[in-house]
């Protein structure tokens, strides 16, 4: 084990915390679904497991988990899974006797955070909440996620223009600069498959936040923000082009990168990459998305 | 020339008006043809293959006489699906793709992506100092090479061919440095999540110092040639006007925003990679026009030179320091060196994994084929590229490949200003306005 990095149980990075909690929520706590754990050689894992069970070995005691606000696990049921990952090696039905092929791990996004969010996050969230309550729209913000020092506001679709307008114009908020919109397709996030993600910058206060709107595949409509942030003109066209998100109220929602008559929306997860098998010296190589791959 | 003879605009393509195809034939015959028609309103399709559109950009201009009444861009001719492709490769391989987007500033593409991945991995504080300094050094050299091309092609497009030749001459010196340090002139894939791919080669610092000395002599040449040149000023001053309100509304950043007098530079406002430790000024100009943007680029090259100098000094004291994060679950297992056969190889590492440690072999195999996992979540780290705010929205689902990587490219956003900058002006000013935005189509179309 000369090359194995020292993974003392005591200094587990925090990011594993969420995943483990989620694993329990999904009922898979029996197996170690931890990403870094499974990447280690099996013997080593077993050895350490045995050590910790019998109490022998290095004798390192595990420190109490960090209880700072961002590390408090979300209540069960609030953790949102966006799909499942099966196996390890991307091969199904082979003679894999390692057991790794049977792994089932939940794909879990960071859970919503509770107040206080810390730093200026509370100023922004507080100001936003006050204004929304004053207009009886307090349900506009579905949840707030603080992860890796970035704050994400999940906004209800119908309230997006109102929230954006307020973020731009309110004196305490002043998010006058929009970096654009990026689509994300989560095919397994039932009922919220398509996400539109906006990054807003307040040059006045030097702050950066993220807005996220989720809509179902069956009804991919999002209100356009071009009237509030004119820069979104091409960005919304690109997101429509690549994901099929329809921005209602956009002045001319047409494709911008793909040809006008292109069928489908290429960056959706159900759209294949390439698709032409390559033949080389008698052997045929499948298109990239059908090749064996790790998952 | 009439429609019937043209392969590329068949009669069915245009529903109204006559089609004139201008492909370098005698100008007299075209103007005579146009004179005969009574129509004043002419729609000119410029590009996508045109030496003055800064790449494969298509412009659709509506003219009245020589005045542009409407200008629209057609883009997408260089779309290569880089974002989609990245979803099918490991996190490390991602840099190989995104470095090819904006081909004039490859290091910035890599940096935006790599900083996002590092934030998701939560190793931002673990990046070794030497890797940070090398990144800053390469990025600032890259800013110089990119601005040199902006000035060179911008000059060429208005007929100042000497500006082009000297611009490319100096850029070649920067690319020589890139080749020495990374092995490639372009498309380096040198920044990796966790650090950089290789240590600085021996002799690199001397070369960088020689370059700094040379540039201090050569940069004033640009100023002498252009700054007070009446023809140059005649073409650039008050052309492509866009004020601060217009810039913010349209999301314009970079030299165009700074030409309104607003000192917005992400290196100062939201420092990354240790930019807070360097001494440099944000360059602004207050004329809101193409000339101001030219002067800003020229001044920014001086500032970059200052940063390169400081970075080189710091690197001199960091000899032998690590350039990759210590976590062996992320760092590439081997350090390659050029072997006697001219190929990259690492004999010590091969001896280790083949002869000494089975675990090391397994580890190597897993890391190289499968790659590391990145905790689920999303990150966006904007950086100041030569053209403005470049950011990568990186999304992970906890797997070994990016779930989604979206690049907010400044060229894409800034190009939206084409119509505001050029409508109401002359046709020849459209070229100047676009050159002052300095769009790179590889970045626009991705």
Automatic annotation (TrEMBL), chain A:
Keyword annotations for this protein, in alphabetical order, are: Cell membrane, Membrane, NAD, Oxidoreductase, Quinone, Translocase, Transport
User: Which residue intervals are annotated with compositional bias (Basic and acidic residues) in the record?
Assistant: 1-52
Fetch the InterPro entries from UniProt. NADH_DH_suC, NADH_quin_OxRdtase_su_C/D-like, NADH_UbQ_OxRdtase_30kDa_su
Entry membrane topology: Peripheral membrane protein
Region of interest (Disordered), residue spans: 1-80, 273-295
Q: Which family does it belong to?
A: Belongs to the complex I 30 kDa subunit family.
> What's the name of the protein?
NADH-quinone oxidoreductase subunit C
Species name: Nocardioides hwasunensis
The gene is nuoC
From TrEMBL, chain B:
Q: Which GO terms describe its molecular function?
A: oxidoreductase activity
Q: What class of enzyme is it?
A: translocase
* Catalytic activity annotation: a quinone + NADH + 5 H(+)(in) = a quinol + NAD(+) + 4 H(+)(out)
Q: NADH-quinone oxidoreductase subunit D domain spans which residues?
A: 158-446
**Main location (coarse class):** membrane
Q: Which SUPFAM superfamilies match?
A: HydB/Nqo4-like
Q: Which domain of life is it from?
A: Bacteria
Q: List localization entries.
A: Cell membrane
**One of this protein's Pfam families, by short name?**
Complex1_49kDa
According to its UniProt record, the EC number is 7.1.1.-
The family database entries (InterPro entries) matched by this protein are listed as: NADH_Q_OxRdtase_suD (IPR001135), NADH_UbQ_OxRdtase_49kDa_CS (IPR014029), NDH1_su_D/H (IPR022885), NiFe-Hase_large (IPR029014)
Q: Which UniProt keywords apply?
A: Cell membrane, Membrane, NAD, Oxidoreductase, Quinone, Sugar transport, Translocase, Transport
Please report the record's description of how this protein sits within the membrane: Peripheral membrane protein
Q: Tell me, how does this one assemble?
A: NDH-1 is composed of 14 different subunits. Subunits NuoB, C, D, E, F, and G constitute the peripheral sector of the complex.
Give the record's family classification: Belongs to the complex I 49 kDa subunit family.
What the protein does comes down to: NDH-1 shuttles electrons from NADH, via FMN and iron-sulfur (Fe-S) centers, to quinones in the respiratory chain. The immediate electron acceptor for the enzyme in this species is believed to be a menaquinone. Couples the redox reaction to proton translocation (for every two electrons transferred, four hydrogen ions are translocated across the cytoplasmic membrane), and thus conserves the redox energy in a proton gradient.
What is the protein named? NADH-quinone oxidoreductase subunit D
What organism does this protein naturally occur in?
Nocardioides hwasunensis
């Amino acid at each position: 084990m000369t090359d194995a990095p020292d993974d003392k149980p005591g200094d587990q990075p925090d990011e594993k915390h969420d995943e483990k909690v989620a694993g329990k929520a999904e009922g898979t706590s029996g197996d170690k679904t931890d990403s870094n754990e499974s990447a280690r050689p099996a013997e080593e894992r077993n050895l350490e497991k045995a050590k910790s069970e019998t109490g022998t070995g290095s004798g390192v005691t595990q420190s109490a988990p960090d209880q700072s606000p961002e590390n408090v696990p979300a209540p069960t049921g609030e953790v949102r899974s966006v799909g499942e990952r099966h196996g390890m090696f991307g091969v199904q039905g082979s003679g894999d006797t390692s057991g790794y092929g049977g792994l089932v791990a939940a794909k879990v996004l960071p859970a919503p955070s509770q107040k206080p969010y810390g730093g200026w996050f509370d100023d922004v969230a507080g100001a936003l909440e006050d204004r929304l309550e004053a207009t009886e729209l307090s349900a506009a913000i579905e949840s707030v996620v603080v992860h890796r020092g970035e704050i994400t506001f999940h906004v209800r679709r119908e309230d997006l223009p109102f929230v954006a307008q307020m973020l731009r114009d309110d004196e305490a908020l002043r998010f006058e600069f929009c970096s654009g919109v990026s689509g994300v397709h989560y095919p397994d996030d039932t009922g919220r498959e398509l996400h539109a993600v906006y990054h807003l910058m307040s040059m006045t206060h030097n702050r950066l936040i993220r807005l996220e709107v989720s809509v179902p595949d069956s009804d991919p409509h999002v209100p356009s923000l071009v009237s509030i942030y004119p820069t979104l003109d091409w960005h919304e066209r690109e997101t429509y082009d690549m994901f099929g998100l329809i921005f209602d109220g956009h002045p001319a929602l047409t494709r911008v990168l793909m040809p006008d008559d292109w069928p489908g929306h290429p960056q959706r997860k159900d759209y294949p990459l390439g698709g032409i098998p390559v033949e080389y010296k008698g052997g045929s190589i499948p298109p990239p998305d059908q090749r064996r791959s790790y998952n | 020339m009439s429609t019937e003879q043209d392969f590329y605009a068949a009669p069915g393509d245009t529903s109204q008006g006559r089609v004139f195809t201008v492909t370098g034939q005698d100008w007299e015959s075209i103007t005579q043809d146009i004179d005969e028609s009574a129509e004043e309103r002419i729609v000119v399709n410029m590009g996508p293959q045109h030496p003055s559109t800064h790449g494969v950009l298509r412009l659709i201009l509506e003219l009245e006489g020589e005045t542009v009444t409407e200008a629209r861009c057609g883009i997408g001719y260089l779309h290569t699906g880089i974002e989609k492709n990245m979803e099918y490769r490991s996190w490390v391989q991602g840099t190989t793709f995104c470095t090819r987007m904006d081909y004039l500033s490859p290091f910035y593409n890599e940096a935006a992506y790599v900083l996002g991945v590092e934030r998701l991995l939560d190793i931002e504080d673990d990046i070794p100092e030497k890797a940070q300094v090398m990144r800053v050094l390469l990025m600032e050299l890259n800013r110089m090479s990119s601005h040199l091309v902006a000035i060179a092609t911008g000059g060429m497009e208005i007929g100042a061919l000497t500006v082009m030749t000297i611009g490319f001459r100096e850029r070649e010196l920067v690319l020589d440095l890139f080749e020495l340090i990374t092995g490639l002139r372009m498309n380096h894939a040198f920044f990796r999540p966790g650090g950089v791919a290789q240590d600085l080669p021996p002799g690199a610092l001397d070369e960088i110092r020689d370059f700094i000395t040379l540039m201090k002599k050569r940069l004033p040449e640009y100023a002498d040639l252009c700054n007070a040149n009446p023809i140059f000023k005649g073409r650039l001053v008050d052309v492509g006007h866009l004020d601060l309100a217009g810039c913010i509304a349209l999301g314009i950043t970079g030299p165009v925003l700074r030409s309104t007098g607003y000192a917005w530079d992400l290196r100062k406002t939201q420092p990354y990679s240790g930019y807070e430790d360097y001494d440099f000024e944000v360059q602004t100009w207050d004329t809101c026009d193409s000339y101001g943007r030219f002067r800003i680029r020229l001044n920014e090259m001086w500032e970059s030179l200052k940063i390169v100098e400081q970075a080189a000094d710091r690197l001199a004291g960091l000899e032998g320091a690590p350039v990759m994060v210590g976590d062996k679950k992320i760092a590439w297992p081997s350090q390659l060196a050029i072997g006697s056969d001219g190929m990259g190889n690492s004999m010590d590492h091969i001896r280790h994994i083949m002869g000494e440690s089975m675990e090391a072999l397994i580890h190597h195999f897993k890391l190289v084929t499968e790659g590391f996992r990145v905790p689920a979540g999303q990150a966006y780290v904007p950086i100041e590229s030569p053209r403005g705010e470049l950011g990568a929205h990186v999304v992970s689902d906890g797997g070994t490949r990016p779930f989604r990587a979206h690049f907010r490219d400044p060229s894409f956003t800034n190009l939206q200003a084409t119509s505001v900058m050029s409508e109401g002006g002359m046709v020849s000013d459209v070229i100047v306005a676009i050159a002052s935005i300095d769009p790179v189509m590889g970045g626009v179309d991705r």
